[in-house]
Specification:
alpha+beta, single chain, binds ligand DP6, 14 strands, 8 helices, eight-stranded mixed beta sheet
C-alpha cells in the first residue's frame, strides 16, 4: 500500500549526510497474535500494553553514494558497538524487501548502530523494540529527504506498517499505552496492515500499570515465534482459537474501558495459557514453559487468593513470566517477588517494566 517509485533521490542535487536516532520500547500482548498469513498479516486482532524500560536505541547514519557503487543496499551494522553479521544479514533482507516502498535506500550508504536497554541474553523478546526502532528511523529518513511524512498520525501509521513487515508484534510498539493490531469492528480504523492506538479507550489505571518480567530462562527458544506461527496452519484448533481471540478482545476492551481488573486479569491469564496450549497441541508438539514457570504461576494465584491483590501473569512465546499489576500495590508486589518468586528466576533476575508513552526520537 506504500509502494512509491517517486521516492528517488536526484543525483544532481544530493542530500547532505546525516543521522537519525530513535528509542523504541517492547510491548506485552494481552490478546495474543499467534497465526499469520500472506505477508505478515494476523489471523486475529491482538492488543498490547506498550512498555518503557525494555527498549532498543537505533541510530541510522546515511550518506549519498554515487551510482558507481552499484545498486545493492550498502549497510554496516553494529550491535552494542560490535559488528554483527547475523543481524546485518537479517536487516539487509528486511531493507531489500522494502525496495518498492523505499527505492532511495539503494542510493545511500547506511550504517545502523543499535543496542538494547536489557541484557541481550535475558531472553526478552527484542524483535518488537528493534524492528519498531528501525522502522521509525526509516520514516524519519523519508521525511528528512522528501518531506512526505509531516503529519504525525500518518508518520505513526507508516512506521507501524513498516515495523509489521519486520516482525508482526513490532507494529504495536509505535503507540503510547496500548495498541490494537488487526481488523475488528470494535476499534474504528483498525487494520491488519498496521496497529492503531487505543490509549483513549482504556481506563487510567492501565496507564500506571507494571509488568515485572521474571526471567526463568535466558536460553534461546527451542522453537522460534516464526516457526510457531507456521505450525498454527495445521493446528486443528486454529479456527476456534481465532474466534476465541475475537470474543476475548471484546471482553477485554470492555474491562479496560471501565477499569475492571478481575476481568482484565482473567483474560490475560487465559490468553497466556491458551498460547502455550496451542504449542502443546501443534504437530510437532512442543513446550516452552519450564517447571519454574509453573511454580510462579501457582504462587501468583495463591498470593492473589490470600491477599486479594490484583496481580496477574502473562507469558509470551517463552518460559518467562510477566507479572501485571497496578501501580498502587507496587510495594507489596515487589516484596512478594523478592520473597517468593525471585528464587525461580535465573540468577534471581527480574526486569522491571511499566506502561509507557511510546517511542521517542533522540
Ligand atoms: C507470542 O511478532 O515475534 O509474542 O511476526 O514472526 O516476527 P513474527 O512474530 P512475533 O510473534 C509474537 C508472538 C507473541 C504474541 C504477541 O506478541 O502478540
Amino acid at each position: 500500500m506504500y509502494e512509491n517509485p517517486r521516492l528517488v533521490l536526484d543525483s544532481s542535487n544530493p542530500p547532505e549526510a546525516g543521522s537519525i536516532t530513535w528509542r523504541s520500547p517492547s510491548n506485552i500482548a494481552l490478546i495474543k497474535y499467534w497465526g499469520k498469513y500472506g505477508n505478515q498479516l494476523p489471523r486475529n486482532p491482538s492488543l498490547s500494553l506498550t512498555l518503557s524500560a525494555s527498549c532498543t536505541d537505533t541510530q541510522l547514519e546515511y550518506a549519498f553514494k554515487d551510482e558507481a557503487h552499484g545498486s545493492a543496499i550498502d549497510l554496516d551494522f553494529f550491535f552494542h558497538q560490535s559488528e554483527n553479521e547475523e543481524f546485518k544479514v537479517k536487516t539487509l533482507a528486511y531493507l531489500e524487501s522494502l525496495s518498492a516502498i523505499y527505492p532511495f535506500l539503494k542510493q545511500l550508504k547506511l550504517t545502523v548502530r543499535t543496542g538494547n536497554s536489557f541484557p541481550h541474553s535475558a531472553g526478552i523478546a527484542s524483535s518488537a523494540s528493534a524492528m519498531s526502532a528501525l522502522a521509525l528511523c526509516l520514516c524519519s529518513l523519508e521525511d528528512k529527504l522528501f518531506g512526505t511524512l509531516q503529519d504525525g498520525a500518518e508518520f505513526d501509521k507508516k512506521a507501524s506498517y513498516l515495523a509489521r513487515l519486520g516482525s508482526g508484534s513490532a507494529c504495536r510498539s509505535i503507540f503510547p499505552h496500548a495498541a490494537v493490531w488487526g481488523e475488528t469492528s470494535l476499534v474504528a480504523g483498525s487494520s491488519n496492515e498496521f496497529a492503531v492506538p487505543v490509549g483513549d479507550l482504556i481506563h487510567d489505571t492501565f496507564k500506571d500499570f507494571h509488568d515485572d518480567i521474571l526471567i526463568v530462562s535466558s536460553a534461546e527458544k527451542a522453537v522460534s515465534s516464526r516457526a510457531g506461527h507456521a505450525l498454527m496452519d495445521d493446528n486443528p484448533f486454529a479456527e476456534p482459537r481465532y474466534a476465541q481471540a475475537r470474543q476475548r478482545l471484546e471482553m477485554l476492551l470492555g474491562a479496560m474501558r471501565t477499569g475492571d481488573l478481575e476481568t482484565f486479569g482473567k483474560i490475560a491469564e487465559d490468553e497466556a495459557l491458551t498460547l502455550h496450549a496451542l504449542m502443546m497441541c501443534s504437530n510437532p508438539s512442543y513446550i516452552l514453559m519450564q517447571p519454574d514457570s509453573l511454580a510462579i504461576i501457582e504462587k501468583v494465584r495463591e498470593y492473589r487468593a490470600e491477599t486479594g491483590h490484583q496481580v496477574y501473569f502473562t507469558l509470551d512465546a517463552g518460559p518467562n513470566i510477566h507479572l501485571l499489576y497496578p501501580g498502587d500495590i507496587i510495594h507489596e508486589v515487589r516484596k512478594f517477588i523478592e520473597d517468593e518468586l525471585a528464587e525461580h528466576c535465573e540468577n534471581g533476575y527480574v526486569q522491571q517494566d511499566w506502561v509507557g508513552e511510546g517511542p521517542e526520537e533522540m
